[in-house]
Amino acid sequence: MLKFVKHHLAGIDNVDVYPIISLILFGSVFIIILVKTFLADKKVMKELSNIPLNDDLSNPQKPLI
């Protein structure tokens, strides 16, 4: 299986750049989500965490944020 993949990837110019780009993209998205999580409003997070426990069916269209 690996020989099959290596054979096709060997024909692509600068194929060694793709893992670096994917690592940078993954790392930046992870850091952005981590920062947004720590900077989020605690009141909104508490309200969002209680959604599964909320039995209030009188207003289902209530905006969360």
UniProtKB/TrEMBL annotation:
* Keyword Transmembrane helix appears in the UniProt entry: yes
Q: Which domain of life is it from?
A: Bacteria
Segments passing through the bilayer: 20-39
- What keywords are annotated for this sequence in UniProt? Membrane, Transmembrane, Transmembrane helix
From the Swiss-Prot or TrEMBL record, give the protein name.
Answer: CcoQ/FixQ family Cbb3-type cytochrome c oxidase assembly chaperone
Native organism is Schleiferia thermophila
